[in-house]
Write a structure and sequence with these properties.
The protein is an alpha/beta fold. It is about 35% helix and about 15% strand. Strands 5-4-3-6-7 form a five-stranded parallel beta sheet. Strand 9, helix 6 and strand 10 form a beta-alpha-beta unit. The longest helix is centred in the first third of the chain and has 17 residues. It is globular, with a radius of gyration of 22 Å.
Length: about 475
């Protein structure tokens, strides 16, 4: 009789080439895993390709590596040359490396260019049961499809290019069950922020999170990707959702998915990728999604979050001295005082985009808040689609007009203000309502102050010029 296995265990065990231990929970040992899909971009790959060149090695399986430019590319007029010298050099280097090694590349002129964690799923490159790696921490996004996906360092990028394998220690597993049905106005971003707020930025260290429950099953693939994307912000190695009918419907028409009988065989195989009855996760957390309010961060890490109806916390009420010191530093950087209501807090900038919330569904949600309204005076708001495909679809639906007529800037795809590696940055002291995934000090620009929230919440903040409870817009 077979021992019940979790979703993670099924994917992990099917990719182990060899291991120094028994490969079990008690004796995991470092394992050599086969990699099905390797995604690369212009920032973390140059040194890896140069390492191969110096060692006289070739890319082992170039057909299993896909490259795109996204991190520091300009999101303005693409007809102009890249002004930033470093960005221009990195983009040119990736173009040269891809050409020399036979790797498929989506450059600035490609109709499928976009953020690496957006184009993988939308092209159907991301599929259930895969092991997927990329030199980017938010590779966990792809776990929404029942893949085991995680970020790797530059030296590991070189190793995967050379061998199509990677050495990993076996992580533990944690089930995160979101029960109940979220109320109107509660988005996937609120669910994941609520989890990180509860367990902290190190609460899932060493774990792969499997998201389950009624609230997860009810999410679209875009919502599931948002959840898995931010797993890393809780310290997790990866996040996963078992594939189901929603997954298959999303994938069926994608350019790189199987067709005909091959599709039927794939769906049959993918349908087994779920935790068996009786499978034991090493840790389990339950969250009532029906009880959640819209979340917004007030501090300098994603765990420093609160309901929009709450106030900035007082460091004196923190659970430990370390937390008190952390809170004080965060409030000083964010220029906030304890007891300040979050609702009504003025913003200077609004950013809609990123690999967390730059997909077509995210833009639809935000456009609902912008349609027929105007960006508040003194606020600069920008919309950065996650890919050229998202941009094209949004323009076909008229979402770009909803935004531009309201006073939002409509830009080209890229990581943009998420990490401030390009011209889209905050000025010192500017406060931003952002749909991205990190609110660290200086993340969006030196001295910039970032508040994370859902797309609808960010768009509503642009209209009002301050943080607001989006549920009021839904009722009005």
């Amino acid at each position: 009789m077979m021992v019940p296995r979790t979703l993670f265990e099924k994917v992990w065990q099917s990719h182990v080439v060899t291991t120094r231990g028994a490969g079990t929970r008690d004796d995991p040992g470092p394992a050599l895993l086969y990699v099905d899909l390797h995604l690369v971009h212009e920032v973390t790959s140059p040194q890896a390709f140069e390492g191969l060149r110096l060692a006289g090695r070739k890319v082992r399986r170039p057909e299993l590596t896909v490259a795109t430019v996204d991190h520091n590319v300009p999101t303005g007029d693409r007809r102009l040359p890249i002004a930033d010298e470093t960005a221009a050099r990195q983009v040119a280097t990736l173009v040269r490396n891809a050409r020399e090694t036979g790797i498929e590349l989506f450059d600035l002129d490609a109709p499928d260019q976009g953020i690496v964690h957006v184009i993988g799923p939308e092209l159907g490159l991301t599929q259930p049961g895969m092991v997927i790696v990329c030199g980017d921490s938010h590779t966990s996004t792809h776990g929404a499809f029942g893949a085991l996906a995680f970020g790797i360092g530059t030296s590991e990028v070189e190793h995967v290019l050379a061998t199509q394998c990677i050495v990993q220690n076996r992580p533990r597993t944690m089930e995160v069950r979101f029960s109940g049905v979220p109320a109107a106005g509660i988005a996937a971003k609120d669910l994941i922020l609520a989890l990180i707020r509860r367990i902290g930025i190190a609460g899932a260290t060493g774990y792969v999170l499997e998201y389950t429950g009624e609230a997860i099953e009810g999410l679209s693939m875009e919502g599931r990707m948002t959840i898995c994307n931010m797993s890393i912000e809780a310290g997790a190695r990866a996040g996963m959702v078992a594939p189901d009918a929603t997954t298959f419907a999303y994938l069926q028409s994608r350019p790189r998915t199987p067709r005909g009988e091959a599709w039927e065989r794939a769906v049959s195989r993918w349908s087994s990728l779920r935790s068996d009855p009786g499978a034991d996760h090493e840790r389990s957390i339950r969250i009532d999604a029906a009880a959640l309010a819209p979340q917004v961060t007030w501090g300098t890490n994603p765990a420093m979050a609160a309901d929009i109806t709450e106030r900035v916390p007082d460091p004196a009420d923190a659970a430990s001295e370390a937390d008190r010191l952390s809170y004080r530093r965060a409030l000083e950087y964010m220029d906030l005082r304890p007891g300040t209501p979050l609702e009504g807090l003025r913003v200077d900038r609004v950013f809609l985009g990123s690999c967390t919330n730059g997909r077509i569904e995210d833009l639809r949600d935000a456009a609902t808040m912008a349609r027929g309204r105007n960006v508040a005076p003194g606020v600069r708001a920008m919309v950065v689609p996650g890919s050229q495909r998202v941009k094209t679809e949004a323009e076909r639906e008229g979402l770009d007009r909803d935004f531009t007529e309201a006073g939002f800037e409509w830009r080209n795809p890229g990581c943009s203000m998420c990490l401030g590696m390009n011209e889209d940055i905050l000025l010192p002291g500017e406060r931003c309502a952002s749909t991205s995934n990190r609110n660290f000090e200086g993340r969006q620009g030196k001295g910039g102050r970032t508040h994370l929230m859902s797309p609808a919440m960010a768009a509503a903040a642009a209209v009002e010029g301050c943080l607001v409870d989006v549920r009021g817009y839904i009722r009005s």
